[in-house]
Model the fold of this input.
Amino acid sequence: MNTRVEMPERHTLKKTMTFGNYISIGLGSIVGIAWVMYTGQWLQDGGPVGAMLAFILCGLLLLPIGACYAEMTTSIPVAGGALAFVFKAFGTLPAFLTAWGLALLYVSVPPFETIAIGTLMESILPGLITEPLYWVDGYKVGWSTIIPGLVAGAFLFWLNFHGAKSSARFQLWTIYLMFACVLGFTATAFMNGDVSNLLPMFAGEGSLWVAGSSSIIAVLVTAPFFMAGWDTIPQAAEESGLDMKPNQLGIAILSSISLGAVFYVVIILATGMSVSSEQMGEIMENKDVMPTAEVFRVAFGFEWMTKLVLITALMGLLTTLNAVIISASRLLFSLARGGMLPHWLAAVHPRHGTPGNAIIIVSSISLLGPFVGMAALGPMVNSGSFAVTFTLFMTTLSALKLRSSAPGLERPYRTHVSTLFLAVTIALILLSLMLVPQSPGQLSMLEFAYVGIWMLLGVTGYIMRLSSGDMSPQERSYMILGDYRGPESQGNLS
Done:
């Protein structure tokens, strides 16, 4: 005898996103401020050609992982991304641990961005620098670092709270403007720079093969973390507009990875052509400047060009902050909707169709950043990088497992099974770089402590919610996966 089980109401988000919106979310997350701060370091560690080849290779290595995300996102286009993928493949606890780990990155990035916005504004408008109010671990905190971050965070909170369409439109137009600025200063560098500055091509010593290999590896071990961000697209997959084709979410993910790699290569080439390795070394010794911006002042004496680089970086910060507020709020919303976090995080604003309470939490965390200052950046970002690398591994593993456990799952973007195996291998290598002792990317004990404390807090909340017994396993499956549970679980019990 079959008995129909009545399912509770499943709150869904408004479908307003376009293909261009998803590209801008993914690419906007990849392109932040790292290129302004670290291009000089990449040139020193790898040499111009070595650094460019590292990012090209990084893009190629990430494409198989991106293909797994493309397959999974188009198969299960619901808010939460990895939460739904891992839940479908491995069940409740692995899904929660993966999603809560990813949440560590997503709630760490907003305060990072609001801190950096204040610091960057001081570089753009040094005349507005105020006296320190206090110091945190050797870093000053003043009104000139606090106010810009607060203003930017408050504006993006308002924008996101009032609808995904508004925040997505802001993201798209800011990306357009940012790349127009990039075109301006890179074109100037190509026209006025000198190809001879690209010598030596590699930073390593020895034969060309030995020097080239060591130089590429020196940059490659960190490149995936600067390329992270395209994984924000699955978090907003539930909001794809009705005009989008089924496979376009997958194309947006792969396009974001490819465009992100091209962006970094162009920046490295433009910077490398502008100054010699000796000049770059002198610039890097000055800890009070943004290295990439300072390059154009030293090379060409163009003050306007230096400001343009800094303004471009500011726009990159805003796009990253906006994309992560979108992603973090959707992830917290989906965890709550799936019965793993408190109910009130699953609330959807009746008029705007946004996860209003989740946006309030993420935005509030971002507004704390300016009061902490630069001292908090390192531990937050490194522990968050570990979390996202673990998520990459679990998502690729889920895509591989579901080929056998859910062969009938509709896959609008289907990748070859050999690509799935390759993606799992690459993700495992990236994860190992952060765990193996003496590895260049190994986390410190403090960073492991951050991860441990965060996971302990999450598991405590998870146990409390599950112990309430307010949601059956079948209801949880419906809340997380919606109509993508599969024909075996459409609400009938024998």
About this structure: Confidence is low (pLDDT under 50) at residues 487-494. The two ends are 6 Å apart (CA to CA). Residues 18-78+109-374 form a domain with the Amino acid/polyamine transporter I fold (CATH 1.20.1740.10).
